[in-house]
Every structure is written in structure tokens, then in C-alpha cells.
Amino acid sequence: MNLDKRLGVYNTSTSYLLIPTMKSPAEYLAPHVFEARRPRRELQPVVGYADALHAVEQALADAEKYKYLLMRALRRHADETATIATPAPAPQRQPETIETPVLPMYPTGLPLAA
């Protein structure tokens, strides 16, 4: 099945979604790099501010997508491996005891503070 690498590839033989590996930071910047020469120096790789900002936004968007795919895979795995919980035993009834009376902390009949 030919799907975009960034969306993941659905493996029909094992029925699960293969999550592609995330790009390295250099891979986001690679298309935007050009070489510039500073006065009396050799060529140096340079990335424009707008291009760097675009690369960071793209990396954050991809990270959010990978996070979603990973969380979905974890939830599916948890659902598949979940064991059926046995019901808890009914609590044993304790024999009734005589309750201790609750006494007031302060004597009654004192004037209230204003």
C-alpha cells in the first residue's frame, strides 16, 4: 500500500500502523541552507531567519502528529492486552459496635464572638 511516509504505512499482514521515525533537526533545515561568504573568510552554511522559523514550525507539527500516533498505538496495545478484572469480593460486615458520643469542644451557653 503506497501511503505518504509522513502519514505512516499500514501493514496489512499484521494489521497495525507502522510509525515512521522522526526526522532529525538537520533534515528540517537541509532544504533551506545556502552558502554565504563573509568578508575575507571561506563559505559557511547559512539559514535565513524565516526559513529557520518555518523549519521549527514544521518540526513542531510533525512532533504533535507523532505524539498522536504513538498515543493511539499505546491505547490500542493497552486495550488488546487488558485483562478482565475479577469483581472485588463483597466487604465483610463488621459486627455493630456502640458508637462513642461526640462531645462539644466548647461548653454551650457562651456568648458568641462579635
SSE map:
Blueprint: E1 9-11, E2 16-18, H1 25-29, E3 33-37, E4 43-47, H2 49-81
Antiparallel strand pairs: 1-2, 3-4
What does this structure look like?
This protein is of the alpha+beta class. It has a domain at 22-81. 33% of the residues lie in helices and 14% in strands. It has helices at 25-29, 49-81; strands at 9-11, 16-18, 33-37, 43-47. The strands form two sheets. Strands 1-2 form a two-stranded antiparallel ribbon. The chain has a two-stranded antiparallel sheet with strand order 3-4. Strand 3 and strand 4 form a beta hairpin. It is elongated. Mean pLDDT is 76; it is low at 1-12.
What's the order of the H and E elements?
A: EEHEEH
Please, how many helices? 2
The major sheet is characterized as: 2 strands, antiparallel
Radius of gyration: 33 Å
- Portion of residues in beta strands equals 5-15%
Find the count of extended strands (DSSP E, 2+ residues). 4
Quick structural overview:
This protein has 114 residues and is α+β, with helices and mostly antiparallel strands. The protein has a domain at 22-81.
Question: What keywords describe this structure?
Answer:
single chain, two-stranded antiparallel ribbon, alpha+beta, 114 residues, 4 strands
